[in-house]
Design goal:
heterodimer, A: mainly alpha, Cytochrome Bc1 Complex, Chain C, 9 helices, B: Rieske Iron-sulfur Protein, 2 domains, 10 strands, elongated
Chain lengths: ~220, ~170
């Protein structure tokens, strides 16, 4: 006997193709299980965690020199579970850089970047740079001394490029000095531009992983 | 090996993954609900009582002006607003006191006592209120508000800084 849920699921499955979606996305054939192969999923999980906690933080955070610091103090001390949401975002950021790096190291060591997965690797390099970009732009947002001076130095380093250095520095800061414009554009990059690019590249990355399947670990014959 | 009640490895992994995922989702989701709704659950702090005058220093019959500051905290912003009013002793009896707000009920200008008119005059539109705060002439829609008060042991007039409508 089919109960109501099974009937409902069958109805949806017939129209959405849930079962084949599940088989193709989650029930793929895998090479012999290895924990190192879970780091990509771990990176994806951390990314989604950062997205969720980041969205929550924008409910109270205010990206202006007058209010940025005070609004974060408010999140940490006054808002229920504000310390938890910001804590997860803060530590999750560092953890994500670490996990993405180890994921990349695993891909390198097992030579998984070779044919036909060269594009998966290149998109992954883009994702690493975007992850670091998220770290760099997010670091300024608390607008305390450490954030201010780290960004001063960071943008100066970018400004040391021969010939176009000054242009890059001004483009990053929104002018010659670190100002309200810098905070505003770092915020825009941190919550709109970089995440949008990341979503796009992660989609492509996952498509390629599913299309080519996962590589097996190299053995004596490889 | 596998009896009718034995779980397959696959099902075990599926259920475990789902359970851990559910715990993580709840661990983030439930605090997040509290986080979003925190401002709605916060109790509005009632204003602390304010000492505005010593009763002995107030002459009977002539309205005695006072003002006080109320600081409201919204998030990380503090806003100080100055409010004012008049203590009016109707007789020598310490309980026979009325405390009116000086905020005109028309557009919130501050009214002044006028000996000549024996009433409160609003400088903005020349409205006139009588000694009890009732509208005599002009645009205000209702009488001046009043404050609840008590006289403490030292003879101070202590008001609750919440303006109340006068019927």
């Amino acid at each position: 006997m089919r109960n109501a849920w099974q009937t409902l699921f069958a109805w949806l499955d017939e129209r959405l193709g849930l079962h084949s979606l599940y088989q193709n996305l989650l029930d793929r054939p895998e090479p012999r299980g290895n924990w190192w192969n879970t780091l990509g999923s771990a990176s994806l999980f951390l990314f989604l965690l950062q997205v969720a906690t980041g969205i929550f933080l924008t409910v109270y955070y205010n990206p202006s020199p007058d209010h940025a610091y005070d609004s974060i103090q408010y999140i940490m001390n006054e808002v229920a579970f504000g310390w938890l949401i910001r804590g997860i975002h803060h530590w999750g950021a560092s953890l994500m850089v670490l996990v993405v790096f180890i994921h990349m190291l695993r891909t390198f060591v097992t030579a998984s970047y070779k044919y036909p997965r060269e594009l998966t690797w290149l998109v992954g390099v883009g994702l690493l740079l975007l992850t670091l970009g998220m770290g760099f732009t997010g670091y300024l947002l608390p607008w305390h001394q450490m954030a201010y001076w780290a960004t001063t130095v960071g943008t100066q380093i970018a400004g040391s490029v021969p010939f176009v250095g000054e242009f890059i520095l001004k483009a990053l800061r929104g002018g010659p000095d670190l100002s309200a414009l810098t905070l505003q554009r770092f915020f825009a990059a941190h919550i709109w531009i970089l995440p949008a690019l990341m979503f796009a590249l992660i989609g492509l990355h996952l498509y390629l992983v599913i299309k080519h399947g996962e590589s097996h670990f190299p053995d004596k014959d490889d | 090996m596998s009896g009718p009640n034995r779980m397959t490895r696959r099902d075990f992994i599926k259920i475990t993954t789902g359970a851990i995922g559910g715990v993580i989702a709840a661990g983030i989701g439930l605090p997040a609900i509290g986080y979003l709704l925190a401002p709605a659950l916060r109790q509005d702090k009632a204003g602390k009582p304010v000492i505005v005058a010593k009763l002995a220093e107030i002459p009977v019959g002539k309205p005695y002006p006072f003002s006080f500051t109320v600081t409201r905290v919204n998030g990380w912003e503090r806003t100080a607003n100055v409010f004012g009013g008049f203590v009016i002793r109707l007789s020598e009896d310490p309980q026979d006191v009325r405390i009116l707000s000086s905020r005109c009920t028309h557009l919130s200008c501050r009214v002044n006592w006028s000996d000549e008119a024996q009433g409160f005059i609003c400088p903005c539109h020349d409205a006139l209120f009588d000694r009890d705060g009732k509208v005599v002439s002009g645009p205000p829609p209702e009488a001046l508000g009043h404050f609840d008060y008590e006289i403490d042991d030292q003879g101070n007039v202590v008001i609750l800084p919440v303006e109340r409508k006068t019927e």
